[in-house]
Amino acid sequence: MVDFRCKDISPTRFNQRLFEMFQFSSQYFNYDDVVINRGLILFQGPVLVITFLSQQIMSVRDAKGVVVEGDPEKVLRVMYVWVLCRDQTELDPKAAWRLLELSANSTEQFL
């Protein structure tokens, strides 16, 4: 549990400490059913809603190497929904899309 009452810590410093305390591991095996579900023009610019399936392994280990979350042997099937917006101030079209929102729903992949 993280207690923010004792220290004034910036989100950047918090993320840095988090990555020092834990080792995050992800392995991606497959992407499938990539679909652009919706395209809209809103006041901030073009918006795309993209869905896709992924097969992956995710786990988190503490500083001692003990698995504290996930399972390094279990393959998960994850359904992602990404909402992307075109940054109107960025001139490079390959760098102009920004992730606005992300949703992920995972289930165990039975082999």
Radius of gyration: 18 Å
Note the beta-strand portion.
over 45%
Briefly note the structural class of the backbone: mainly beta
Unreliable residue stretches: 1-6
Q: What's the shape?
A: flat
| CATH architectural label | Roll
CATH topology: Nuclear Transport Factor 2, Chain: A
Termini separation: 35 Å
The beta-strand count equals: 5
**CATH class placement:** Alpha Beta
The total domain count is 1
Q: Largest sheet at a glance? A: 5 strands, antiparallel
Give the count of helical stretches.
1
Run of helices and strands: HEEEEE
Residues in helix, %: under 10%
Provide the residue-averaged pLDDT: 84
Question: Can you offer a commentary on this structure?
Answer:
The two termini are 35 Å apart. 0% of the residues are buried. A hairpin with a 2-residue loop joins β1 and β2. This protein has one domain: Nuclear Transport Factor 2, Chain: A (Roll). With 111 residues, the chain is mostly beta strands. Strands 1, 2, 3, 4 and 5 form a five-stranded antiparallel sheet that branches. The protein is built from one helix and five strands; from the N terminus they run αβββββ.
